[in-house]
Specification:
Structural class: alpha/beta
CATH topology of the largest domain: Rossmann fold
Bound molecules: thiamine diphosphate, magnesium ion
Distance between the termini: 40 Å
Number of domains: 2
CATH class of the largest domain: Alpha Beta
Strand content: 5-15%
Radius of gyration: 21 Å
Order of helices and strands: EHHEHHHEHEEEHHEHEHHHH
Largest sheet: 6 strands, parallel
Number of helices: 13
Length: 371
């Protein structure tokens, strides 16, 4: 039903055992460890930006549960069409912290040679497609990839991540319609974090819920508690299984809250009441999972300390390594578009190489980012 909210973890950690997904103790602890790592990575990302060491960062604070729940529900060969707010999903799929930070810093070791916006990761080994900034565009991209996989007889599915704001895009409507009509093996995952920069959900749509929009396209729409890692796991697994069986797409609306700013470039206290934030802060996805794990004797202070310290150490080591990496060579800006560049571009490239070699090329490097 499009109005019920699937939820497994209660605030006090008392859960009916039959509702708990089939995940062994080791996997449950690993989920928690990755949620802690995601939060630590985001905290460090924001600090690096405030220190002027990177130009821009997009935090996902408050949305760790949905990222790790999804990561455990998906297969290694499935394809992710990501939002910029799921670094934890990339890390949980095996992306190294260094690879992630090379992207954020835009070093010469970044897969896109520093030409993408920071936090717009491109991770080929993780089937994590380069993030499209124009919101909503990744929805039809995922449908196309899903249809291509079915055409090739593969068992993989595609999943598109987008926000509540993304549901107002043309990509949302054409993606859901096209995916539904062709029973594409795709999952549409909406991170309903209540805000699209400064626009609250009440101003985004007149629909009662986001999930209900699925009805118009003839596909199931489910609402899930996005701060409940186990409920997200269960909902995503069910939708992915359904897509894999050839039964078509599902729209998942995960209810969560953007606890931080939209990005390092805005100040949410200018447009968002403090009380709303305080209300959601009580529902921290980490704390909720922690209470559940503690009841099962899978969490204690010692485990917490290990998770936090290991995360901090790993991130610091990655920052140190990445800060030693040189920026991309200037002439890489000419790569990746033309196999053989037109004569005019080749001339400009050669002139740039000469200028660079002569040491006359000076670049602005004050961490300024125009957003
Ligand atoms: C087509 C398009 N319009 C506007 C923007 C500028 N923009 C970037 S993020 C954003 C808000 C997106 O909100 P939402 O979809 O709810 O995702 P969230 O940032 O909350 O995770 C906007 C308007 C954009 N990137 N693309
Ligand atoms: Mg949003």
């Amino acid at each position: 039903m499009a109005s019920e909210v699937l939820s497994i973890l209660t605030a006090d950690g008392r859960v009916s055992p039959s509702a708990v997904p089939d995940l062994d103790d080791g996997r449950l602890r690993e989920m928690y460890r990755l949620m802690v790592l995601t939060r630590a990575f985001d905290d460090r990302g924001m600090n690096l930006q405030r220190q002027g060491r990177i130009g821009f960062y997009v935090p996902s604070r408050g949305e760790e549960g949905l990222q790790i729940g999804c990561a455990f529900a998906l297969g290694k060969d499935d394809w992710i069409f990501p939002s910029y707010r799921i670094p934890g999903l990339a890390i949980a799929r095996g992306a190294s912290l260094e690879t992630m930070l090379h992207q954020v810093y835009g070093t010469g070791r970044d897969a896109c040679s520093g030409r993408q916006m920071p936090c717009h990761y491109s991770l080929r080994p993780q089937n994590f497609v380069s993030i499209s900034s124009p919101i909503g565009t990744r929805i039809p991209q995922a449908v196309g990839a899903a249809l291509a996989m079915r055409y090739r007889g593969e068992r993989s599915i595609a999943i598109a991540f987008f926000g509540d704001g993304g549901t107002s895009s043309d990509g949302f409507h054409l993606g859901l319609n096209f995916g539904a009509v062709y029973d594409a093996p795709v999952v549409f995952f909406c991170q309903n974090n209540q805000w699209a920069i400064s626009v609250p959900i009440e101003k985004q749509t007149r629909s009662e819920t986001i999930a209900i929009k699925a009805t118009a396209y003839g596909i199931p729409g489910v609402r899930v508690d996005g701060n409940d890692v186990l409920a997200v796991y269960a909902a995503t697994k069910a939708a992915a299984d359904r897509a894999r069986e050839g039964l078509g797409p599902t729209l998942i609306e995960a209810l969560t809250f953007r606890m931080g700013p939209h990005s390092s470039s805005d100040d949410p206290t200018r447009y968002r009441p403090k009380e709303k934030v305080a209300e959601w802060e009580k529902d921290d996805p980490l704390r909720r999972f922690q209470v559940f794990l503690a009841r099962r004797k899978l969490w204690d202070e010692e485990f917490e300390k290990t998770c936090v310290e290991e995360a901090k150490e790993a991130i610091s080591a990655a920052v140190t390594a990445v800060e030693k990496a040189p920026p991309p060579a200037p002439e890489t800006m000419f790569e990746g578009v033309f196999e053989t560049p037109p004569a005019e571009l080749a001339l400009q490239r050669d002139a740039l190489i000469r200028l660079s070699a002569s040491g006359q090329l000076t670049g602005r490097d004050d961490g300024y980012f125009p957003l």
